[in-house]
Design a protein that fits this description.
Length: 479
């Protein structure tokens, strides 16, 4: 049944019509959503700013905890429905979408835990004549209006990472989900409202006009901007921010994995296949570049190819599907072009390398693509793993670092010194030892370096960014 989602901006109307949402697997129309125009965006910003300026009406921490606790309970009751709908709109297989929903619920609970356990601090006084007779302490307060722009690849959990901390810290939030996958966002916002959050505190919108999106992001009433998406768009939007607006940007990586000569391949290969082909490679820290020692590379590529060929690709809403579609047909065309470029330039095609349909692409393994081709330089965001042969591990590390992106990375070895050497020398914010580069739990720091992002994600760190620590200095003769 075709769903229709109205404008989620209280008191606003729009003249920009509706946005159509298509299932990425079969391109069927599954929903429509009202598209916000410039006046609707202005109404959202005015509402959020007014809420923040009225400090007497701020939601108390106990109210926010109660809302988030009830929201988590509602999500738990509807977990199966949320997973199916996330799979339908985003293309991530149902088995993985169920995991995403579980993570999202846990993320809401994590917001409560952080709110309960992290507070201000005492600043030492009475240490010299100037500070005598004083006591100083800090309290955390919301930073102000939060505007968040999200990505398509985790349509529920990414929204929780941006909206949950804003609600927890007491910031009015306006969230713009990806136009390809807005439905999980709308459902989460409705759940928050059902749980007791007044509508004005969390508004959501999609747009047809990119100028309208820029209007939302660049407004001087915005105190914090949270972005998840491509580096090209993220850095462009950052350049549009008003003076004083803080921001966090989460972009993609081109994750390197070093496989040493002594690596346990029986342990490594299932992890590498999962880390590279999970969600058809549409993950910002997906395994993309494996640097394998010459003594193990032949066995590694052969077994990785076997794993790629064994994966079931198809309808993401079916329980036995392991790899779903790319988000839109244009991405299939792009991945096909990049793989063909690499093969034409001399890469060995070990597995895959063909489109299955307009929406699905085979899980692909390339051996030794040249360093200048796109699959070696840029984030594929598709089901493609590149394997490179090395003889000297320091040369492999240098090759891994020779691009302008750095996010998470990994090393497989049985030797502690090798693990420490690689971990220390790789350009990365996190290095997994004997695990794939896409490992993540939602309370750990998650940060892109160089062109891969700015600031630190992860729910506790986002909550930190969405608050200020206001200091009070009290002077008294009794001190």
């Amino acid at each position: 049944m075709l769903e229709n989602f109205p404008l989620m901006i209280p008191g606003a109307t729009t003249n920009d019509g509706e946005l159509e949402v298509f299932a990425p697997f079969d391109r069927s129309l599954i929903a429509t959503a009202a598209a916000a125009d410039s006046k609707a965006v202005e109404k959202a910003l005015e509402t959020a700013s007014r809420l923040f300026r009225d400090r007497g009406a701020w939601l108390k921490p106990c109210q926010r905890i109660a809302i988030l606790d009830k929201a988590a309970a509602i999500m738990t009751e509807r977990a199966d429905e949320l997973a199916v709908e996330a799979a339908r709109e985003g293309g991530k297989p149902l088995i993985d979408s169920k995991v995403e929903v579980t993570r999202a619920i846990d993320g809401v609970k994590n917001c409560i835990e952080v709110l309960r356990t992290e507070g201000g601090q005492e600043i030492p006084m009475n240490l010299n004549p100037a500070s005598a007779g004083r006591v100083a302490f800090t309290r955390k307060q919301p930073i102000g209006v939060v505007v968040a722009v999200s990505a398509f690849n985790h349509p529920l959990n990414l929204i929780v990472h941006q909206v949950g901390p804003a609600v927890a810290t007491g910031c009015p939030v306006i969230i713009k989900p990806a136009e390809d996958t807005p439905l999980s966002c709308f459902r989460f916002v409705n759940i928050l409202r059902e749980a007791g959050l007044p509508e004005e505190w969390c508004q959501s919108l999609v747009v047809k006009d990119l100028d309208v999106a820029t209007q939302l992001v660049s407004d001087p009433r915005v105190s914090f901007f949270s972005f998840i998406g491509s580096a090209r768009v993220g850095w462009m939007l950052r350049s549009k921010l008003a003076p004083g607006t803080r921001c966090a940007l989460e972009h993609g990586g081109v994750a390197p994995v070093i496989v040493a000569a002594d690596a346990d391949l029986d342990n490594a290969l299932p992890l590498l296949a999962k880390g590279g082909f999970y969600h058809a490679g549409q993950v910002c820290v997906s395994v993309q570049r494996i640097f394998a020692h010459e003594s193990v590379v032949k066995e590694l590529v052969e077994r990785l190819a076997d794993a790629a060929k064994a994966l079931k690709i198809g309808d993401p809403t079916l329980a036995d599907t392991e790899v779903g579609p790319l988000i839109r047909p244009a991405e299939v065309n792009r991945v096909e072009e990049w793989v063909n470029e690499a093969v034409d330039a001399g890469a060995d095609l070990i597995a895959g390398g063909r489109r299955i349909s307009d929406t699905c692409y085979e899980c692909t393994v390339l051996l030794n693509p040249p360093s200048e081709v796109k699959v070696s330089q840029m984030e594929v965001f598709g089901p493609v793993i590149c394997v490179y042969t090395y003889s000297d591990i320091d040369q492999a590390i240098a090759q891994a670092n020779a691009i302008p992106y750095a996010f998470q990375a990994a090393v497989f070895t049985r030797d502690i010194d090798t693990a420490l050497r690689v971990s220390t020398r790789l350009d990365a914010s996190a290095v997994m030892v004997n695990d794939h580069s896409a490992f993540r739990v939602d309370w750990m720091p998650f940060a892109g370096l160089k062109q891969s992002g700015l600031a630190v994600g992860g729910i506790p760190f986002t909550m930190h960014d969405m608050q200020i620590e206001k200091m009070t200095v009290w002077r008294s003769g009794e001190l």
